[in-house]
Design goal:
By secondary structure, the chain is of the alpha/beta class. 51% of the residues lie in helices and 16% in strands. The protein contains twelve helices and eleven strands. It has a four-stranded mixed β-sheet with strand order 3-4-1-5, with no helix packed on it. It has a four-stranded mixed β-sheet with strand order 2-6-8-7.
Amino acid sequence: MRIHFTDRDLARTRMKLETDLLWEIVSSAQILHCANDDPSFGPWRRHLRELASRDAELRMALRTMAKLAPHEVLPSAPQRLHRALRVYFRSVIEPHLPVIEDGVRTEVAAKIQRFLHCGPEGLLDGLGPDTRWDPPVLSVDHPHHLDLHLGGRGLVLVPCYFALHHQVAPADPQLVYPIRTECRLLAGGRPGGDHVTALLGSTRASILRSVVGGSTTTRLAKLVGVAPATVSHHTGVLREAGLIATEREENFARHLITPLGLRVLAADR
């Protein structure tokens, strides 16, 4: 597939900073039914198979998603489909959501750094070996040989934890791309030492990672598992150190990572 850009499209090219749960559901269902050697998915797949062997409702949801994921026509009643999605999300995605979001945040932090140094063309030139940026055309390895003219709408880049291949949603338009394997392996456990946590402490390190896409004090309290007053104390320390910035909007504060904060996270990778 060839995606054609104008100057207006380049100016409007942007990245989705939050985890896109629908794409994670679709991509994870595809992973369950294809062979791949990515080491980051092995434990997850084995755990899910063991879980499904004891849960008939989950097995039904997996069969339903297996038909949905390749975009085949599914003669299911809406109620059945809704239930399958709910069961699938609860069993397959939700227990691993902190790790998924951690991996996506790690990818986003690196891409923001690339954007700051290289602009939107730098983003398009760093989407993996299945793409090639030859201005003004982005070529994507895709089963359909199509030409997509953005027509001034720009392109939304969507990093996806479970994606194995690039996927295009022309209507939006969006390009879903796989995050790097090292971002998956670093998520959660952070093998090889977590220098940011050693430097800042676990709570401040978690807050710093969680503000990559911007976050309010209330949401940070839920993500990190501490009281809002504790979050306010730690964001104050991080702000004084120049690692985050805070915008005041009416009755709430929105915290954003700074270029220095991004460099600290990037150095830890």
